[in-house]
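Hey,

The postdoc asked me to send both predictions to you directly instead of through the lab channel. I've kept everything plain text so nothing gets mangled by the mail client. Protein one:
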Amino acid sequence: MNEHYRPTPGTPMSDLDTPCLVIDMDDLDNNMDVIANTYQGNGAKLRGHSKNHKTPAIAHRQIRRGGTVGGVCAAKVSEAEVMVHGGIPSVFITSEIVEPMKIARLAALADQAEMLVACDQASNARDLSKAAQARGVEINVVIELETGLRRCGVREINAGVALAKEISSLPGLRFRGVMSHQTIPEMPDREDRAVEAARTIKGVIDLKEAIESEGMPIDIVSTGETWSYDVAAEIPGVTEIQGGSYLMMETHYGYMTEFRYAAKILTTIISTPRPGVAIGDAGVRAVSSLSGLPTVFNYPGVTVEALDSDHSVFRVDSGANLNVGDQILLIPAQQDAMVSRWDRFIGLRQDKVEVVWDIQARGCHN
């Protein structure tokens, strides 16, 4: 959206064309600093997930701020291509890549940066090996263990050990370690998060130990996410945390108060058709409703009642005041889907434009 709109630095937020995707730079820096401070002196580091921001400039900012492995995760080969071409030196594709053309593209990237990829079957490992040999490169492979999402990953320890042996025997591949990904329901406290992280991550630690007992060294145990960014780092053996949502935040992580809502949609009220109702100029195409309706930021008594393609319907409680021309900030329930709708971030500091970043991996689905 707003394909050609690029405000100049110094423009006040009140003068921005809406709807637009904005980042509060102070909040963004706070979120990066939480990570840098958490992992300072810790054996585990963040490998930030670029699918959440899709922007090499932000990935570089994360790495410079500290607490990371010096690289990122990506969900797709096309996303990884944007990160590598944007100068990120290490990219871990946390999805299995099986289609021949995509494997060839992955091998081409391995000529330019350290490339890691998830794997859960021997046939895929053999295809990766053939592509690496044809290109004359080395592809780093990490075995994924399924730990509750019912998606990709080996299901049993024995299967993981057998796959590690297969990968280790194949030319062009370097077996690096194991990974897992998990979720947590509701809004837990820290003790609940620690218990659930220990329970779900135990399997990947068990797999690591089983593989090592067969004489195959492991240097990567990549697991954890925003909800477990701190507690997973305390589990012996974990080396990387795949956090992503913490960076810009969404309502589902509202219980993690150390992080701030950095990314929001700025919308303008265009109509007040009747008492208690106001209409904004941002709808589903701007903010997404993949995981529910957005929340209004710092405007007591005003809530989002509905979204259509290009409009939001606000309920305005008695005592709240909302007029045509007023600006509202919306916090998404799920931010990667929102970010994918936009061509650029507008970075604000103290309500003035500081920077504009192109979202270069927008629409990278392949």
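Protein two:
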Amino acid sequence: MKDANYPSIKEQLTERKGLLHDAVKVSPDNQNLNKLLSDVDAALNEMAEGTYGICTVCNDPIETESLLADPLMTVCLSHLSDQQQQALEDDLEYAGKIQRAMLPEKEIKTDEWEFAHHYHPAGIVSGDFCDLIPANDGSHIFILGDVSGKGVSASIMMSNLHALIHSLQSFNLPINEILQKANRLFCESTLSTNYATIVVGKVVPDGTVEICVAGHNPPLIVKDGKVTPIGATGIPVGLFCSAEYDVERFKLNKNDFLFLYTDGLSEASVNETEYGTDRIIEYLAEVNGLSAKEIITDVLLKQQSFLGNTKLEDDITVAAIRKI
């Protein structure tokens, strides 16, 4: 079976085969290494024959997400043994715990700023992420993003990108350089089909905000009842290693705020009708003096009222940053 991801998987498997060969030379009697080498050879042969990605039990295609997470997968999720199912559930549970541990506190307040967020994965793990990182000069770096795909593979990529940005900010780089370096490193460490939309910004005590929007849903500036979307200042991370990002700068005064969200908020739908950005903007234009937490709570309640009993199918992460 052909899949757009297979050339990238083949490239990675070929590279891993070379590394396994080197390891086997050092430890020729290692049964685990020899089995892995045999499994990689089998997968590459199946690619050459056009049979890669087919479940050996039911002959249906294996989920692409499963193959991205484990290129040596030979059965679809429904045909895993009880032991394999339990191992997968355990891994998912640990992955979910790791993700939640990476999140900032739900509410953070300084003398100048109030930050709040809501994170709700559609499953155990998520491709969404957000963070707020204090800097030595009294400023704060904020991040909110959404990695393509769902499930384990998206959560692994999310953790990778989150760690990259978190590490790079410690070098006191301008935010566009943080994003540019994170993009290059992300490109070089993931499959070519993987990408992420992301917002990286910086707030300083006097109310100045700097922000880069890498193909993400437009952040919304709310000042005196006027809502202004911030358009993209660059393409999503992971598409091209040489991508560059511009910076938008503006100033927030007391009670002004910035609202960030992933598409799980705006693209949730009922009977093929999306909740949409316009509904979010309409509500935010009426906000007056609410805390960051209250703003988020009300936005989510309005979305839930729109959805009724319809189940959410995508991760939702929202954040509000308010000048106080």
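Summary for protein two, as requested: The chain has nine helices and 13 strands.

Thanks,
C.
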